[in-house]
Design goal:
The complex is a heterodimer.
Chain A: H1 12-46, H2 53-82, H3 84-95, H4 97-128, H5 130-157
Helix pairs in contact in A: 1-2, 2-3, 4-5
Chain B: E1 2-3, H1 5-11, H2 16-23, H3 27-34, H4 42-51, H5 56-59, E2 60-61, H6 64-67
Classes of the chains: A mainly alpha, B mainly alpha.
């Protein structure tokens, strides 16, 4: 699913531009992964802070995962750009209006489920860890706020 | 919304893959359109109608309750 473009590409040239932009996002993902990995090792050395080993392993795994995912997507996007047939096949696969519609519906459903899960996790988890209700409540508000801002921006454009 | 895509396709001896290629969608989208599981956008409806040399309303049949 493409989070950056709201309109599907109608031509191969448009899709090539989208992929070129997507490659920059791939690089950003790799950099985020490297930063995540280094933060886990640097923070305990710079500030006097001991990190739980399980959490440290989880963060490292997250960082490495992001690096490999970013590199994989970058290579895939580069190979698409080198071959006209590949770019057309990828455009059809990722920009087909039915697939875009399915993706939008799936995204809408998972966002709703995420909201419900956050609400109940905060509500029930708050009994045991009071910070949870604050964090989960904050995330629900962030979601609703970002929805309102995005709605306002797109209502000006459309 | 019903449509005559399958009927027109058979009349013109066009395969689903050929139609999909011509209107820039996947074959699965043509299958879903023909089975009525998916309604085409205005742009796709226009492309399909143009491909068969018809008007949109000759290919896609809008029902009264959908118009309302």
């Amino acid at each position: 699913m493409n989070f950056w473009y709201t309109k599907p590409a109608r031509t191969d040239a448009e899709y090539q531009k989208m992929i070129q932009f997507q490659k920059k996002i791939d690089v950003l993902v790799v950099v985020t992964g490297i930063l995540t990995f280094f933060i886990v090792y640097m923070i305990p050395k710079v500030v006097d802070f001991s990190m739980n080993e399980n959490i440290s392993g989880l963060y490292s795994g997250l960082g490495i995962g992001l690096v490999f995912a970013g590199i994989g997507k970058y290579l895939q996007h580069t190979s698409w750009l080198k071959n006209e047939q590949s770019i057309k096949a990828a455009r059809l696969k990722n920009n087909d209006e039915r697939i875009v519609e399915i993706g939008r519906k799936a995204y809408q459903m998972s966002a709703t489920l995420l909201l419900i899960a956050l609400y109940f996790l905060g509500l029930i988890g708050g009994f045991f860890e009071p910070i949870l209700i604050l964090v989960m409540g904050g995330l629900v508000w962030l979601f609703l706020l970002s929805y309102c801002v995005a709605f306002f921006i797109y209502s000006k454009k459309m | 919304m019903q449509n005559k895509i399958q009927q027109l396709r058979k009349e013109n001896k066009v395969t689903q893959a050929e139609l999909a290629e011509a209107v820039d969608v996947t074959r699965q989208t043509i299958i879903s359109l023909e089975s009525g599981k998916y309604n085409a956008s205005l742009l796709l409806a226009h492309k399909i109608a143009c491909y068969f040399g018809k008007k949109i309303e000759e290919v896609f049949l809008f029902e009264e309750d959908e118009k309302e």
